[in-house]
Specification:
mainly beta; 32 strands; Methylamine Dehydrogenase, Chain H; 4-stranded antiparallel sheet; 5-stranded antiparallel sheet; 393 residues; single chain; disordered N terminus
């Protein structure tokens, strides 16, 4: 059972805010705002007819297991890296952003069969599917470009350059087909999906936005932000790309920043413990989960730390120490009331209401992203050079 320590950090109004797969086998068998010139639709490499996903009854967490893996192309490290993953639950397909090959690969959700692939911006870091507009969005970072494609045809309809920040890591959509959001090294960029232009740049006093999540029920965008700083002759300095850049004073290492999804106005900030990774929201309970790590001085090692943020009180209400190391990713299955966390060599299931650790699946993970099919309950973990691990029942 996890060791849990309750504590609260209150947000203050004066804050200035800154921001592969498994090489082992599975348990059960086979894991400016320019629109640009639209590209041609990709040629499918396999039958594009979707295989209906399995019907999933309401099960117990004990039935959840590793199902199969989707290897990287040729299982050759030079062929790319499965950096990010998204799910289209209606078409029963998943989209995998293949970093270093500058492409997105489309797989049958039930079988892992490759259906098609198409080029996107350089070094894609994130991919999202918007069900209302039926668009696939991919964030490339060299330069910072959002590629927008029609999910049915795969045809690129726009490429939008994001001018703000020297790099970008995070991408989110509003679920209404209206806006997308990009987290950069200096704030958040809001993209109008209808006009297909950058609608607004929201500067934040951050050095990185690790992750973004949008709550469609409240219209609030949550940014997981970081401000790394160093003192040099009385000035606050952030070391970016090995060059010291003087920035204004920042008053935290990590924070959860709430912004109005339409205007970009900062609504509030909540200070977090440092060394954070990713966030996920439970819109039913109005809870945000923040994965990360902390140093355990008694054990003299780093341990996994899950911070549970109550949005109504705007405070961290619990910190849960969990048995993981390294980077971690997270999704919340609101229907089945399960929180899924993937970390180095571990996949954890927690009760979304009690935060109790209910199951641990060991072995072979080095995750970079995670996506949930809320209909089937399956979870897809992208992990660097190895591909995608599929979990489910």
């Amino acid at each position: 059972m996890p060791l849990r320590t309750g504590f609260i950090f209150l947000a203050t109004a004066s804050l200035i805010v800154t921001a592969g797969v498994l090489s082992a086998c599975s348990d059960d068998g086979p894991s400016g705002n320019a629109s640009g010139t639209p590209s041609e639709a990709p040629t499918p490499t396999a039958s594009a007819t979707p295989t209906p996903g399995p019907a999933t009854p309401t099960p117990t967490p004990g039935e959840f297991r590793r199902l199969f893996t989707i290897p990287s192309p040729n299982e050759d490290p030079s062929s790319g890296r499965a950096r990010a993953v998204a799910v289209n639950p209606d078409a029963f397909v998943i989209y995998v952003a293949n970093e270093f090959r500058d492409e997105v690969r489309v797989f049958d959700e039930a079988t892992g069969t490759l259906q098609s692939s198409y080029p996107v911006g350089e070094n894609p870091r994130a991919v999202e599917y918007d069900s209302v507009s039926d668009l696939i969005l991919t964030l490339g970072v060299l330069p910072k470009v959002v590629s927008i494609r029609n999910a049915d045809s795969g045809t690129e309809v726009a490429r939008i350059e994001v001018p703000q920040g020297y790099t970008a890591d995070a991408l989110a959509v509003d679920g209404a087909g209206e806006r997308a959001y990009v987290g950069t090294a200096s704030g958040v960029s809001i993209i109008d999906l209808t006009a297909r232009t950058v609608e607004k740049e929201v500067p934040l006093l951050v050095t990185r936005v690790h992750d973004l999540v949008f709550d469609p029920g409240t219209g609030v965008l949550y940014a997981l932000a970081e401000c790394n700083k160093a003192r040099s002759q009385g000035q606050t300095v952030d070391y970016i790309m090995s060059s010291p850049i003087i920035i204004e004073e920042c008053t935290f290492s990590s924070a959860l920043i709430a912004l109005d999804g339409s205007s970009g106005e900062v609504l509030f900030e909540i200070i977090l413990e440092r060394d954070v990774n990713r966030i996920a929201i439970d819109s039913i309970s109005q809870t945000v989960y923040v994965t990360g790590s902390r140093y355990d001085f008694e054990m003299e090692t780093r341990v996994g730390a899950l911070q549970v943020v109550d949005l109504e009180s705007r405070a961290v209400k619990e910190r849960i120490d969990l048995p993981w190391k390294g980077g971690s990713v997270i999704v919340v299955d609101e229907t089945r009331r399960i929180v899924h966390v993937a970390a180095l060599n571990k996949f954890l299931l927690l009760d979304a209401d009690t935060y109790d650790l209910v199951k641990t699946i060991e072995g072979g993970l080095e995750p970079s992203d995670m996506a949930l099919n809320s209909t089937t309950g399956r979870v897809y973990v992208s992990q660097s050079w190895a591909g995608i691990v599929v979990f489910g029942r």
